[in-house]
Design goal:
The protein has one helix and seven strands, in the order ββαβββββ. The radius of gyration is 15 Å and the shape is globular. The protein starts with 16 loop residues before the first strand and ends with a strand.
Length: 118
């Protein structure tokens, strides 16, 4: 975090995160925490779901993707109508901009990721 001009003071380090992953029969929901003042919806932020613990975020399209559809720095989001295999590992990644509803969203602004096994 870098303070606004005229605000003064020291900046602080904030690490974006994904937590509270809940796996349903056909859905995966998660909690996200981003730096204060971030506007995910306004900026075109989105989340992708990949199979594997270390997917190549920049070259492999996600199995599912969603916009972060609220303008709060913290909240919950969910992938719906997804098939999650038992005993398999998946990774969620949040990108801060570049969402395209038809697919092909920009995969160069990864803010954070988290892996889980069902």
């Amino acid at each position: 975090y870098i303070p606004k001009a005229g605000e003064g003071g020291q900046g602080n380090i904030f690490t974006p995160s994904i937590s509270g992953i809940n796996i349903g029969a056909t859905s995966v929901s998660f909690q996200f925490d981003l730096p204060d003042g971030i506007l995910p919806l306004t900026n075109g932020a989105w989340a992708g779901l990949w199979r594997g613990a270390n997917p190549s975020f920049y070259t492999v399209a996600p199995q599912s993707f969603i916009p972060i559809s609220l303008d709060y720095s913290s909240g919950r989001a969910a992938f719906n109508n997804v098939s999650i295999g038992r005993g398999l590992t998946y990774t969620i990644g949040i990108f801060m901009s570049g969402y395209k509803s038809g697919g092909g969203s920009t995969q160069r602004t990864l803010a954070c990721s988290a892996s889980f096994t069902n």
